[in-house]
Request: fold
Amino acid sequence: MAWRKVKVDATTLNTAVSAADWRHALQLLTSVTNSGVLQSGATSCNAAISTCEKYGEWKKALQLLRSASQKNRQSDIITYNATISACKWRHEWDSALQLFKELTQHEDLESNTISFNAVISATGKGGDR
Reply:
C-alpha cells in the first residue's frame, strides 16, 4: 500500500482497524507499523483484538496480545478484556481462565467488572463444546 499518499495518524489507523474484517485489520496494522509511518500502540492493538473478537478469531487475538508483550508494548486492561472476550466465541474457556489468571497476577493491571463478565461468559459457554 502506498502510505506516503495517505496521511495516517493514530485515530485514522484505529478507526480503519475497527471497521475492517479481521484479516484486513491485521494486514493494515502490520503494514502501517512495518512501513515506519506510525508506531502502533496499545489502542491500535486493542482495536485489532476487538476486531478479531467480533469474528471469533481468538487465536489471532491471543497472538496480538503475546506479540505486544514481546515487543515491549504495554498491554492494558482493555487488551486483556478483549482477548478474554474473544475466547468465548470458540468456547476456549481454558484460555480465558489462563488469561484472567495472568491479568490478576499482573503488577500494573487490576481486573474490573468487564474482566469478570468476560471470563464468566467464556466459562459459561465452555460446556457447549
Remarks:
- The mean pLDDT is 85.
- The two ends are 40 Å apart (CA to CA).
- The chain has seven helices and no strands.
- Helices lie at 10-19, 22-35, 42-54, 58-70, 77-88, 93-105, 113-124.
